[in-house]
Write the structure tokens for this entry.
Amino acid sequence: IKFGFEYDDYGNQTVNTEYGIDGGDYVDERITVTEYARNLTSWMLRFPKRVEVRDGAGAVISRAETFYNTEWKVAMTRQYGVAPEIVYLHSPVMVDNAAGRIVVDEE
């Protein structure tokens, strides 16, 4: 299995390409694209704004969008092939690109 990575000027991973099994008729490529919300004045640089998981052809198979208010609290929408679900949170979330999931801090 091969991987490819791209990063922005702040060191955030913006693209994680999983090429899947090499050879054969496998269609198991997955591309995770992450966009970040930034507040350069406060040096808040690593807050994911949108995470899309795409198949090898580039079709979006899941999407999570995160919105931060002025206190940097978050509201998030998740979509996995169905209508979006809105989840309101009081603490940041972690996007686990490798597992293709969003981890919510419940504290």
Q: What stands out?
A: The longest strand covers residues 44-55. Residues 35 and 99 are 18 Å apart (CA to CA).
